[in-house]
Design brief:
CATH superfamily of chain A: P-loop containing nucleotide triphosphate hydrolases
CATH architecture of chain A: 3-Layer(aba) Sandwich
Distance between the termini of chain A: 13 Å
Largest interface: A-B, 49 and 41 residues
Helix content of chain B: 40-55%
CATH class of chain B: Alpha Beta
Strand order of the largest sheet of chain B: 3-2-6-5-4
Number of helices of chain A: 5
Number of strands of chain B: 6
Radius of gyration of chain B: 18 Å
Structural class of chain A: alpha/beta
Oligomer: heterodimer
Helix content of chain A: 25-40%
Structural class of chain B: alpha+beta
Largest sheet of chain A: 8 strands, mixed
């Protein structure tokens, strides 16, 4: 649900990074935070456990600049990936405009990817969204690991609806901004379509 | 996309701002914020330079969402008011019309009783204004009255956002 404020001339959109635990959702957001000009970003908030596992969400507001005289602001959220935090994930999906699914490329995590994807579909549905129509980007993270599943195999198992796929090594920043730019673009195009 | 976008026009914003400003004054509060349940700040009044409004909005919405779920877990519909007491400042959070969050930050110059009383009245006024906003947002034709600039967004406009 985009928030368009004509008084402040702002467009506010919500992006959510979804995916299995330890897949690199927080790493994506942290890299964006580190590499973004201080004037274009707000505070990075992480509600994490003592061991740095996301407990509720990470949050990063980004100001992308003006479009047609409106400041374009994106609020990036991650969800906690661990299976038992499902209640929190549902809360964070409320009002989402676009979703990035961060899949873990390690062969041993394929089942976790599939479970999380299924969970995303279900939770979106509960909020009244359809994964088939919402702006959605798929990221294959950890492509540098020797145990990474081949790209084609990942695609066969996880590609959902012809969504764009990006290969990433989030801790080095590879593919992080490409993913973000694509989802932001898709959300803005949706805005154009809706009006 | 599920749910209509929230579209706030200047005249509605001004009415909201007036209600929030009056509430702040009546409560003798440091700051008053109106936030939507998805974590977007709608309006802020008071000594807001000292605070990260965006972060506050996101965290308050997360807090309300989590508390709503807690309420349902124990068989309550909702906890309509949350109150956090600090050493200096206190936070009074309430849900207005089931869809937006009103946050009042106050110190020893005010009291919980006064804030609760004034918030109750302010919420009624806010509800009236917000209903206009929601009705308009839910109807794309009315929302676009005066011409929506977004139908005209070009691929070049979007690419320019990412040019650096």
């Amino acid at each position: 649900m985009t928030f368009i404020n004509y008084a402040a001339r702002e467009i506010n959109c919500k992006l959510v990074y979804y995916g299995p635990g330890l897949g690199g959702k927080t790493t994506n957001i942290k890299f964006v935070y580190e590499k973004t000009n201080p004037t274009s970003k707000g505070k990075l908030i992480s509600l994490a456990t003592e061991t740095d596992r996301t407990l509720f969400f990470d949050f990063l507001p980004l100001d992308l600049g003006e479009i047609r005289g409106f400041r374009t602001r994106f609020h990036l959220y991650t969800v906690p990936g661990q299976v038992f935090y499902d209640a929190s994930r549902k809360l964070i999906l409320k009002g989402v405009d676009g979703v990035v699914f961060v899949a873990d490329s390690q062969a041993a995590r394929m089942d976790a990817n599939l479970e999380s994807l299924k969970n995303l579909e279900l939770n979106l549905k509960e909020q009244g969204y359809d994964i088939k129509t919402i702006p959605y980007v798929l990221q294959f993270n950890k492509r540098d690991l020797p145990t990474a599943t081949p790209f084609e195999e990942m695609k066969k198992r996880l590609h959902y609806k012809g969504e764009p796929i990006f290969e990433a090594i989030a801790n080095k920043g590879t593919g992080v901004f490409e993913t973000l730019k694509m989802i932001a673009k898709m959300v803005l195009l949706e805005l154009r379509k809706g009006k | 996309m599920a749910g209509a976008d929230l579209i706030l026009h200047p005249e509605e914003y001004e009415r909201i701002r007036e209600v929030i400003a009056r509430l702040r004054s009546e409560c003798n509060a440091k700051m008053v914020f109106l936030i939507d349940k998805n974590g977007q700040s709608i309006c802020a009044q008071g000594e807001t330079d000292a605070i990260d409004v965006t972060a506050l909005a996101s965290l308050a919405a997360g807090n309300v969402a989590a508390t709503d779920s807690l309420a349902r877990l124990i068989g309550e519909k909702e906890f309509s008011i949350l109150f956090h007491e600090g050493e200096r400042d206190n936070l009074h959070i309430s849900v207005v019309a089931g869809r937006v969050i009103l946050v009042v930050i106050f110190d020893e110059r005010s009291s919980l009783g006064l804030v609760r009383l004034r918030v109750k009245r302010g919420s009624t006024d806010l509800r009236t204004v917000l209903e206009t906003v929601w009705n308009r947002s839910a109807s794309p034709k009315k929302a676009a009255a005066g011409g929506s600039p977004f139908g005209e967004i070009t691929d070049e406009d979007i690419d320019r956002l990412f040019s650096d």
